[in-house]
C-alpha cells in the first residue's frame, strides 16, 4: 500500500487519484470513507461530538484500511496525531509526505467548509500551528518526502514515481552486486576464482551508486 500524508490542502486526494490511475491501483480517500461510515460530514461530526471522538473513529478506519494491499490511500491531515496510526502506517505502507509551507497552502484553502480546523479568522496562523505540530510527525513515518510547492499534481505524481523507480533500481542493483559477491566467494572456496570477478563486482557497485545519485540523490544517500 502507498499512503499519502500531509497538511490540509497539500493535494493528498488529487495526487492520490492521479497516482492510483498511473499505477493502476484502487484509490481510497480515508476522509470520504469515514463520512460514509458516520453517515454525515466530518464537519458535522466535529460540531456534534468534538475532535477526540472523530480521532477515535479515524483510528478504527486507519486500522481497517491499512489491511488492504496494492492500493493508494489518502489520509486525513491529522491522522498522524495518534501514535497508533503512525505505527500502523509506517509498518504496513510506503508513506509519502506531500510537503508544502503554510504560505504555499494558503491560496488552496478557498471556502472549503469540509475542513473544520481551517474555518477560523486567520487561516494562515492556524496553518502555522498545524505545521509546527504535524511536520515532525509526517517526517517520522515518511519513506519519501515530496516537496510539492506550487507544482501541478501531474508533476508531483512524476516526482513520486521517479523516487519509487530509484528505490526499485536500488534493490535490483543490490541483488545484482550480491550475486557477483556470492559468485566470488564460491569461486574462492573452489580455489578457482576468475581473475576478473573482483573487478567486475567493483565496477557494478560504482556504476550502481552513480546511477542512484543521478536518479534520486536522497535515496542514494540512504
Keywords:
222 residues; globular; five-stranded parallel sheet; disordered C terminus; alpha/beta
Would you kindly provide a written description of the structure presented here, covering whatever features stand out?
There is one protein chain. This protein is an alpha/beta fold. The chain has ten helices and five strands. The protein has a five-stranded parallel β-sheet with strand order 2-3-1-4-5, sandwiched between helices. The protein starts with a strand and ends with a helix.
Q: How are the SSEs ordered, and which strands pair?
A:
Elements: E1 2-5, H1 12-23, E2 27-29, H2 30-38, H3 42-49, H4 51-65, E3 72-74, H5 83-92, E4 94-99, H6 102-109, H7 123-141, E5 144-147, H8 153-189, H9 197-215, H10 217-221
Parallel strand pairs: 1-3, 1-4, 2-3, 4-5
Helix pairs in contact: 1-8, 2-4, 3-4, 6-7, 8-9
Amino acid at each position: 500500500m502507498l499512503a499519502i500524508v500531509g497538511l490540509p490542502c497539500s493535494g493528498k486526494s488529487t495526487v492520490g487519484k492521479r497516482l492510483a490511475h498511473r499505477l493502476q491501483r484502487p484509490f481510497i480517500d480515508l476522509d470520504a470513507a469515514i463520512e460514509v461510515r458516520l453517515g454525515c460530514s466530518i464537519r458535522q461530526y466535529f460540531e456534534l461530538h468534538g475532535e477526540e471522538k472523530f480521532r477515535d473513529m479515524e483510528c478504527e478506519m486507519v486500522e481497517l484500511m491499512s489491511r488492504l494491499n496494492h492500493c493508494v490511500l489518502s489520509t486525513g491531515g491529522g491522522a498522524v496525531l495518534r501514535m497508533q496510526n503512525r505505527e500502523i502506517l509506517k509498518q504496513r505502507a510506503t508513506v509519502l509526505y506531500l510537503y508544502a509551507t503554510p504560505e504555499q497552502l494558503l491560496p488552496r484553502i478557498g471556502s472549503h467548509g469540509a475542513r473544520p480546523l481551517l474555518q477560523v479568522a486567520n487561516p494562515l496562523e492556524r496553518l502555522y500551528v498545524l505545521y509546527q505540530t504535524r511536520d515532525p510527525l509526517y517526517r517520522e513515518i515518511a519513506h519519501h518526502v515530496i516537496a510539492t510547492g506550487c507544482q501541478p499534481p501531474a508533476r508531483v505524481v512524476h516526482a513520486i514515481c521517479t523516487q519509487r523507480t530509484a528505490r526499485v533500481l536500488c534493490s535490483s542493483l543490490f541483488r545484482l552486486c550480491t550475486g557477483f559477491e556470492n559468485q566470488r566467494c564460491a569461486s574462492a572456496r573452489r580455489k578457482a576464482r576468475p581473475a576478473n570477478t573482483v573487478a567486475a563486482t567493483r565496477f557494478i557497485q560504482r556504476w550502481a551508486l552513480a546511477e542512484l545519485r543521478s536518479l534520486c540523490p536522497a535515496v542514494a544517500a540512504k
